[in-house]
Q: What sequence folds into this?
């Protein structure tokens, strides 16, 4: 699953639903959105696996 990049201004995160059935590994990656590596970050503070 790949989400869109966010740029400037407030935006509320919404739920993302991805099946992890029969998976052994979950990787959370952050890229630079093609505009260089300055100020890129991610926040998974309330991440849950259900």
A:
């Amino acid at each position: 699953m790949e989400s869109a990049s966010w740029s400037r201004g407030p935006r509320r995160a919404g739920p993302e639903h991805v099946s992890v059935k029969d998976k052994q590994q979950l990787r959370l990656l952050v890229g630079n959105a093609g505009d260089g590596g300055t100020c890129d970050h991610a926040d998974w503070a309330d991440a849950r696996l259900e």
